[in-house]
Amino acid sequence: MNAPPEHRKEHSPADRPARLAVGVVGAGRVGPALAAALQLAGHRPVAVSGVSDASVRRAAALLPDVPLLPPAEVLARAELVLLTVPDDALPGLVEGLAETGAIRPGQLLVHTSGRYGTAVLDPARRAGALPLALHPAMTFTGTAVDVQRLAGCSFGVTAPDELRLAAEALVIEMGGEPEWIDEEARPLYHAALALGANHLVTLVAQSLELLSQAGVAHPDRMLGPLLGAALDNALRSGDAALTGPVARGDAGTVAAHVAELRKHAPGTVAGYLAMARTTADRALAHGLLKPELAQDLLGVLAEGESR
């Protein structure tokens, strides 16, 4: 559980990590932003690794004058190493660094994957590293705005008991709020975030495209207030915030939607039907959709799925 704010403020200077030399392995959208946030807290970025042209540009923009070096040399210079590579690449990276002797005893090794806890760092732990999993629950752009967005951002934190204070202090120094996640709960935690954030982007992008096809000149202006209100209502009230034709049981309207989508944007039909069925199930379970209206609605959805 999150420690209450008043408790976190009671940390003594001894509980906080000393000013550390920070290295970044993987200059994607996340690593340079976190290193820049740590720099604002007084830590010292000393090296970053990146391969693509985009990585080099991000590192130059967010960490100017920090040298771009191979991963092993980043670890040689840093006391705190941020491993900010894609989830699927993380286990192999950790194993490779451990096998080549790049990891030093006492070195803080932090990965930012939502999927993994600290077990993925076991090869590094056996080499003497201090393992932390600090996942910012935020979408990143790869620009300086990301550093500002870390203010108040929740971090999913998994750490050994003896490193909990250090993990908490690092998150707070980056402007975030630590939320403790058990090792075995990490995949479920990450799936929940992906379901909400990643799929939301897809849904919004599809909605923007359809509004443009319908002749709306400024679809972003139309959707902004609507989606902002819907998100606020959902965060406050959960399923009780459901509105629209599915929750009302308007089978005819849903059938018209499906017909129009098949005509103008067939690639959106499967997603619409899947979300409509899930919405209907939740609306029924919470007493929002009347059972007598659900039969026709579910029939329309079944017919759509069978075509």
TrEMBL record:
Gene3D superfamilies: NAD(P)-binding Rossmann-like Domain, ProC-like, C-terminal domain. It comes from the Bacteria. Residues 153-278 form the DUF2520 domain. Residues 14-136 form the Putative oxidoreductase/dehydrogenase Rossmann-like domain. InterPro entries: 6-PGluconate_DH-like_C_sf, DUF2520, NAD(P)-bd_dom_sf, OxRdtase/DH_put_Rossmann_dom, TM1727-like_C_sf. This is Pyrroline-5-carboxylate reductase. It comes from Streptomyces hundungensis. The lineage of its organism: Bacteria, Bacillati, Actinomycetota, Actinomycetes, Kitasatosporales.
